[in-house]
Amino acid sequence: MLRTRSVIIITLALLACTEAPEPAPCGSACRDAECAGDACVGTDASPDANTDMMVVADVSIPEPDVGPADVGESDAQHAADAGPPPGPVDRERSLVWIDPAIVDDPEMVSLARTMSAASDDRHGGRLFDWTLRRFGTTPFSVREDQANIADELRTTLGPDPSTWDLTQAPFIVTAVHLRIDLAGEQHCGEFRVSFSTTHAVVQPFHLIFLFSMVPQPESGDCYSHAVRLARLSEMTHADFLVAARELLDEHLTPERFIIMETGEFTFFPWEWRQWVRVQNTDPETVAALPFVLENPRLFQTVDAEGLNRGGARTRAFLSWVAENAAAINARTILIPEEFRPRFATAPTAIPRTPVSLYDLDPAISWRYPDLRKNLEIIGCPVCHTADAEFVQTNADRTFSEFYDKELDARAEFLDTWVQTRRRSAVPFGPLQRDPVLPD
To answer: Is 190 a member of any domain?
Structure first.
C-alpha cells in the first residue's frame, strides 16, 4: 500500500548554482573523524551542536577551489594546440543539452546509465533502492514517500534490485548540464545529469548527478576542454550527437562521480540534500553494497535556523563573518563546515527565515549593507528562490527565467574565455551580473 500524503503538484526541476567540484582523498582534513575512501566518517552518534539533529555519520566532502583565477598566461600556452577560437556559443549545444536525440535515448543517457556510473557494482539497482529508503530513516529528517517507489519497483521489476532494468523506473532525464564555468585547479568543472520523477503520486522529486570534467590526456589543460565544448556549437546535428556521446562516455564513470543531489516536495516544504559516497557500516548489507550514499553538510549553505538560536556556535559564526566580511560580500570564500546544515528547506507559502547578523559589529554591517544577502545567496536554497522557483530545469525541459539568465551568463563566460584565452574569476552563487538578492 502506498504511504501517501497530500502534495502540491508543481512542475519544477533542479539546480543552477555553484556546487562542489571534483573530490580528492580526505587525508588529514578529517581531523577527529576517520578517513573512509574520499569521505570523513565520524564514529559517534551525538546531538548535532545547536540543532535538534542526531548525527549517526558525520560525512564531509572535500572542498573545491575558491573560484577559478584569471589564468590567461597559462591558457595562452595551449591556445595554438587548440586551434583557432570557435564562433559564438549556442548554449543548447555547449552548455546544456535538452535535445530529445540525447535525453530520450537510454543508450546515450538514462537513470540506468547514470546510477551505473555512480555505483561500485556498475549496475546501481541496489544503491538506488537503498537511497530511496534512506530518505525515511535519516535521523534529522524523515521523508517516507520515496520508499514507495522502491516498493513498486520490487513489485514490477523483481525483489532483487541488482537485476532491475532502471530504464523502467519512473524518471526522465530533464537535461545534461556542462558547467565549464566551475573549472578550477584540479578539474575543468562539472558534468551534470538531472532527472524528474514521472511517478503519479510521489512528486515533485528531482535528482541531479555531478561528475567531474577533466582535460583530455593529449591536451592536459582546461582551455582546450573549453574550446572543445564551444566547438559543439559549430557542428552539424549529426556530428554534434557523435561528440555528445563521446563526452557522455568519458564522464559517466565511477571515477568521475562526485555527488548526487535531491530536491523534492513530497511533503511540505521543499527539501534539498546532497548525497556523497561513504563506506557502508551495516553488516547485513555491506557485502553486496560496500559503499552507500549519505548526507554531508550542504555545500555553501548557511544553517540559518541553527545559528539563530545563539550560543557558542553562533558566536563563532559571527566572529568568522567579522573576520571575512569582505570576501563574504564578494562571494569568494567557503563557508566552514561547522556553520552548514545537513539538509535545507525552501518554504513556498511562508516567508523564509534569514540568518541573523544582529549582533555583528554595526560598523561592518554599515560598510557591507548586503553582507547577509551575499552570504545566503551562495547556497542553493536561497539562490534558487530569490526571484524564481526552487528548481530551475522544468520537467518539460524548459527553464526558469533565473536559469535563462544564468545560461546567458555562462555563454558569455565561455565565449570570453575561448576568444581571449583568459578565464574570468567566478564568484560562488549566481554568475549573472547583478542577481536579485534575497530579502
So the answer is: yes
